[in-house]
Structure formats: structure tokens, C-alpha cells
Amino acid sequence: MLIFSLDTKKCMNALLLHPAFDSFLFIEGDITTFNTFQFNGRLKKDFFSAEEKEALDDREYALWRELREFCLSLIKGKRTPLGFHFVLSMSAPNIARLLEQEHLSFAPVDVQGLYLNFKYDGTKLSCTTGTSMNLFTLDKSLEQAWDKMAQRIFAKYEIPFEVE
User: What superkingdom does the record give (predicted)?
Assistant: First the structure.
């Protein structure tokens, strides 16, 4: 687990205006402006038609790209939000790809999630990485690989950061 202090303007730009994080699952979040808006990213399967359900590929959570513009509509304006918190998780296919690329011994089913927890407190933006496993292990190799991957993601999208 690492905590990153992020350049607020550049990260907000990548997060809300560009597809940088669109392939991530949206787990939960909240935005505080004149009110606090809370979001649960879990998909309500009964809402979808049979064809739409099939297209979801057994996803349990919405993709960030499906909520990004809605979140932007709550945040944009003359005033900055008082705060927000978004929890994003790497998608299952990308978790499998990371395990393979890093030659890690875990199977994709062993990993519940690899998370990016974005938090804006009205003045600064931070991101905390998180790893959740479906089994008990003392092996920190996945956590370390995820921390390095998060740094590569920020570098790829030219988001300046400092590790706290």
C-alpha cells in the first residue's frame, strides 16, 4: 500500500475529462458540493434487458467510463467541490494480465481487487493503493507489483505525484 500526493489539476483532468481510468471498475464513491452524493458502483442486473445483461460479461460493478460524465456534471462549475472520494478497481482481465506480466504465483481467482482510492479534501488530492485477496497470504509480491503499476499509470498519463 502506498499513498500518493497527486497534482490536483492534472489528475482531475485525467480522471474526469479523459479516458485514462475508463477501464477501471467503479466500486463506490461520494462527491460533496452543496449536498453529499453517494454512489454504489454495484450494478443492478434487474434494470437491464437480456441483451444488455449479456453484454455486461458477468461484471458486478459499473465501469468508470459509465459514471465519469455524471460525476463531472456534479463537480464542474465555478466552485470546487468540498471533497470527493472514488474507489476504483482494476478489471479482472487486467488483473490476470498483471499477474502474468509480473510472473506472480497467484491465480486471478485469488485476487478480490486491486484498488485506487482517490480522495480530495477540498485542498489536496491523494490516492492510496489497496490490494484485497480471497485467501490469506504473507506474500507481498502482488501488493508491490500493484504499487509499481500505479506509479506507471500516473507517469503514463503525466500526473505528477509524490509518495508520502
Answer: Bacteria
Domain of 157 in residue numbering reads as 3-163
Tell me which DSSP letter residue 13 carries: H
Give CA separation, 71 vs 16, 23, 27, 67, 122, in Å: 8, 16, 14, 6, 16
The pLDDT score that the predictor gives to residue 132 is 97
pLDDT in tens, 17-38: 999 999 999 999 999 999 999 9
pLDDT tens-place string over residues 40-67: 999 998 888 888 878 887 889 999 999 9
CB neighbourhood size of 140 (10 A): 11
CA distances for 158 relative to 78, 118, 153, angstroms: 25, 17, 9
| One-character DSSP codes across 36-100 | EEEEE-B--GGGS-HHHHHHTTT-SBEEHHHHHHHHHHHH-SSS--SEEEEEEE--HHHHHHHHH
pLDDT at 118: 98
